[in-house]
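Tutorial, part two.
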Amino acid sequence: MPTYAYACKDCSHAFDIVQSFTDSTLTACPQCEGTLRKKFNSVGVVFKGSGFYRTDSRDTKGSTVSPSPAASSPAPAAPAAAPAAAAS
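Running the prediction step on this input gives:
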């Protein structure tokens, strides 16, 4: 069950309480019977399982990025050797 944080608008009394998701929100301060407000805090997220890491979606060959056209074209052929000059 989650823990919720409340603060009183009238007397500034703050407290945490463990409530079920189906429980109704508290509206009265336990100290002064003033109006309560629910405080929202940042949630600590924990990712478990596959699919959350950069390497999880890659195939076994390596990168999933397709090679650039310059890298995939064949290398230019070496220039042909010049014919030998005829000896006179």
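The longest helix spans residues 69-72. In part three we will examine how such features are distributed along the chain.
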